[in-house]
Amino acid sequence: QVQLVESGGGLVQAGGSLRLSCTASGRTFSNYVMAWFRQAPGKERESVATIRWSGSRTLYADSVKGRFTISRDNDKNTVYLQMNSLKPEDTAVYYCARHRTPYTYRNGVASPAEYDYWGEGTQVTVSS
Q1: β-strand pairing of 10-13 with 122-127
Q2: For 24-38, what is each residue's pLDDT tens digit?
């Protein structure tokens, strides 16, 4: 059983920054694509960023390109999301997730259905 634990959320003013972390249990973290999703009240869960198992490739939603950076440290079983220039519309619960299949990466917007392990989420609130 894999457990994902997020941290780093909070309240920040528009233009500010936050860094989210997600630490995974288990020994196969480095074999899987990891992703960050978010869900705002009344909206569907949407992909924010994904990162290949080696960290060599990343993909971002258009809404966060140039502001957010996903990275990972496989020695620490941790994936990060650095969020800069935050906007009120970034307010949401942020979830990290592990892809259901090892060594599988594709271009394009990630679908929640492709991920089988999820953290409990961390709230990010950006005030105007």
Answers
A1: parallel
A2: 998 889 999 999 999
